[in-house]
Amino acid sequence: MFEPELSRAFLASSLTSDTAETPDPDGFLKERSESATYCVEEVPLDALPGWRSDEAIWHESSRFFTVEGVSVRTNFGPTPKWSQPIIVQSEIGILGILVRRISGVYHFLMQAKMEPGNSDLVQFAATVQATPSNYQRVHGGRSTPYLDYFLEHARRRLVFDQLLSEHGAWYLHKRNRNMIVEVPEDEHLLVAEDFTWLTLGQLRHQLQRGGRVNMNARTVLSGISYAMADGLAADDKFRDSFHRQVVESHTRGGGDAEVSAAITWFVDQKAKYMLDVRRIPLDAMDNWVRGTDSIRHRDDRHFRIVGMSVTATSREVNTWSQPMLEPTPGNIVALLCQRRSGILHVLVQAMAQPGLTDRLELAATVHLSPGNYTRSGDHPPLAEYVNAPESWVRVNAAQSEDGGRFLHADTTHLVVDVPEDHVVEAPDNYRWMTLGLLSRLIRSGYYVSIEARSLIACLL
Questions:
Q1: Please, what are the averages of pLDDT over each run of 10 residues along the chain (460 residues)?
Q2: Closest C-alpha among 378, 364, 449 to residue 412
Q3: Could you tell me the pTM of the whole model?
Q4: Can you tell which superkingdom this protein's organism belongs to (predicted)?
């Protein structure tokens, strides 16, 4: 559990957007983007330097990641069986953000990081975003700044530390260590040129715009909980705001009894559904076409696996090649929220995905991937809410997914605030939860999916 004092301090940071100690975030991203040279080009998948292609696609070092085939059988959802390519990355990377008080306000050390798959190439990232292959310098490149703060953190305050999953539709059993480490105010820390301190308020504005804070930073930020700060209850601007309702939801439902009841319900959902995932050769996948340029679905649905050649003078290695997953455009994730007994709740679903470590996780209300459906009746439950009245929409921003592995994977993030008197007819695998309860579950491990965590981060 977060200490109340820390949760109040993080709320104060989320309400601080003007500070003399930090640069203009837009100007900083622009300046760092213009300081380097970038070139990202699609190349034949079978001709990537350093990569081998047989039953799978793998790097000659036997590190980094592989692209393999899987065969899936399940009783969750409308499709009982299928096969697909999937990215396998067994290494546990570090996603870590350093925080410290500056003039009494918590600031977060963010880096301007280029990732080849981002539509906006340079975005704010965590202080450290690296797999062991990266920080052990298998690529022969430069060292990872600030890594020691996350490997040797015993003398510092460990605010958040948890293994969390990533995209269960595109990764097989992928997980990273999400961390927030507090640096004492009086400890000397040199800020490198691609890094800057930002408040949560500044990050909140970047998140509202979309395409400015990368996925790996969003998942770390979702581990923060908030509590009401002194004097804010009487603040007229804050008192009736949606932000106030979000903060109050963070303070409710996170007790042991509520967590126990939610976990019991979740285990019941896991017992209902079967998920059998088996690795198979890429050439054994049904309905997929493997060519020299790409691996694609026979009907050009879902996604492609393509080869990319990258030049980026700001990265640890200036040039490299790799496979990437390019999804069909138009993906949407939506989170319904509603005041229930006066407290804001969000509607999550227990959702099975082939790459999850334990079958199901709590996901956003709606996952809408246009490339997955051939008939209108195939759309998932509650999909009609992505077209909710504009007055109900609290968040509407396109956010990039993991730009290190996914190409132009922009997902529209929607948060829809349903009126209290509106009846939402949800299936049995859906449940209303407070943000306080979800926050406890995030800090407990593999309960909340990456897409749901990303949406929660956008509710800063």
A1: 86 86 90 94 94 95 94 96 96 95 95 95 96 69 87 82 96 96 92 95 95 97 88 62 92 94 97 97 97 95 96 89 96 97 97 96 94 73 96 97 96 98 97 97 96 94
A2: 364
A3: 0.95
A4: Bacteria
Instruction: Quickly list DSSP for 299-333.
Output: TS-SEEEEEEEEEETTSSSSEEEEEEEEEPS--EE
Q: How far apart are CA 130 and CA 187, in angstroms?
A: 24
Q: What span, in angstroms and rounded, lies between the C-alpha atoms of 175 and 170?
A: 12
Q: Which pair of tokens denotes residue 215?
A: 């996925």
Query: How far apart, in Å, are the Cα atoms of 7 and each of 15, 171, 172, 225, 342?
Result: 13, 32, 34, 6, 22
CA distances 374 to 61, 145, 212, 300, 379, Å, are 40, 47, 33, 12, 9
CATH topology of domain 256-275+329-457: Nucleoside Triphosphate Pyrophosphohydrolase (3.90.79)
Q: Does the CA dihedral 106-111-112-116 come out positive or negative?
A: negative
**CB contact at 8 A, 310 and 116:** yes
Q: Give the tokens for residue 406.
A: 């996914």
Q: DSSP of 114-147, one letter per residue? A: E-TT-SSSEEEE-SEEE-HHHHTTTT-----TTT
Q: What is the CATH number of domain 4-38+90-240?
A: 3.90.79.40
Distance CA 404, CA 324 (A): 8
Q: Alpha-carbon Rg of the chain, whole angstroms?
A: 22
DSSP SS3 for 442: helix
Question: Where are the domains positioned within the chain?
Answer: 4-38+90-240, 40-76+282-327, 256-275+329-457
CA distance 245 to 339: 9
